[in-house]
Structure formats: structure tokens, C-alpha cells
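Give me the fold.
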Amino acid sequence: MLTSKEQKRAADEISNSSNVIGKGTILEGNIETYGNIRIEGRIIGNIKSKSKVALGNSSHVEGNITAQNADIEGEVKGKVDISEMLVLKSTAVINGDISTGKLVVESGAVFNGSCKMGASVKDIKMSENGVRPHAQEARLN
């Protein structure tokens, strides 16, 4: 059994981990991570992170993004829901609604959709053991 100190250290290690989806990579499916993620490739699915999502210049995401913080240089087709700070770099193209605590938009960034800023901070809910929450509920009943 882990002590509370060991549990905290394990949680810190998970949240400080980094993931990279490289240029030329195409991934179909949802991504959930407690750590940071950097995407240079193409994602067809939703991205959820308890930390930071960074989309590079060559990135294309067709799906929703939910994270604590995000820096976007590439293209997103979907809703962007950021609890703290969203930075749209000059090469960013967003086609979808934005909800964020704070927003920084560099000159040249393109945004088509509605924007809600200063929204109350939502807790980012992750599924347990890779199982969608509503799938778990169905098994319990």
C-alpha cells in the first residue's frame, strides 16, 4: 500500500509527463492525459489534458480540446475549452467555439466561432482505466 507521500509523488510524476505526436502522424481516436501533450501531426478525435496542450504549426485537429492551458499554432475544427489560459499564435486557425479563462491572440490568428472568456474554472474529468464514464455507469446498473 502506498503512503500519502508516495501517492503525491506518483501524481506529480504523471502530471509532469510529456507526450508528443510527431509531424506526419495521423491518429484516429480520443486522447486523455494527465500530463502535457505536444501535437505536430493530425488528430481525428477529442483531446483532454489536465495540463497543457501545445499544437504545433503543422498540426490539424478535428475534434474538441479540453485542457488546463493551451498554445495553438495549427488548425482546430471543434470546440476549445480551456480552464486557464489559451494562446492563439499568429498561424492558428480555429473553426469552433472557445471557452477559456484568459485569451491571448497574436496578430494573424484566425478564429471563426463564439468566445466565452472568464468562465468559471471547470474540473477536467478523466475516464478511469480508459473506460468512458457513461460506459462504466451502464455496467454498474
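Confidence is low (pLDDT under 50) at residues 131-141.
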